[in-house]
Every structure is written in structure tokens, then in C-alpha cells.
Fold:
Amino acid sequence: MIRGIDHLNIVVADMARSLAFYTGQLGFTRTKEAWLEGEWIERIVGLRGVRAHAVFIVPPGGEPRIELLQYHAPAGQTLPQNSAPNTIGLRHFALRVDDIAAVTAALRQAGVEIWGEPTRVPGGVVNFETGSKQLVYLLDPDGVIVELAEYR
Structure:
């Protein structure tokens, strides 16, 4: 039986840069850290010679936690098409915010790439029990799409 989402994983190119973004700009809290290497992790991920650094972070409102994972070996590659919203597979995750205009402005001022302006989902497209929804997309330092969502 599924009990919930344990965590989401984001593979990052530069742990310090990603931590600065998620903790410094988005307000996540760093909770746990681990170095991963050896036969056990190689068996799980199907790669040889794994040396990786994992840091778990949680959003201000709590779960689910996110695992930031930097592979020092073997090196991965950046695929620009993964930052396109229509590429097949997991493309984005959404964070709930209280004031989407203020959060968007602060992130834009910090140099974060934001796609457009916060936009209200037209009534009747999806019925939200809380009323209406505004959303905007942005990119994290590695090109992962992050949605900001405000419900009113």
C-alpha cells in the first residue's frame, strides 16, 4: 500500500550552487547529508564506480523532502531537452506559495530564470476546492522546472 511520497530526487551539477538556490532563495531547510559509494549503491542505480553526495532538504511547509544528489563519479550529462515542458517524463514539481507576485519578483531580482508572469488558471479548466489558482514556471540552476502555485 502506498503511504505517500517519501522524497523527490534532483541530480545536480554543483551542490553548493543548488543548496544556495533551494535554501537561500526558496527557504528550504537542510536536514540530512550522506556520501554514497560502494557496491550497495552501484547495485541500486546500475552504475559502476559511484561516488555521490546527497543532501536532503525540506520546504518551509514540511514534506515531501527533496534529495539533491551530485554524482562525482561517474559523471552525468546535461540534456537541454529535459528543461522543455513537453519532454516525456517527470518535467516539474510545484511549490505552494502565499504571495506568488512577491516570490516571483524576489526570485527574478536574484537572477532566477522565470517564464512569464504569474497567470491565473481559467475557471472551469480545473476545479479547485480552494477557489482559483495562479502559477508560474521557473528554472533551478540545473534547468529543472519548478512551478510556483498560489491558491485563493
In short: The radius of gyration is 17 Å.
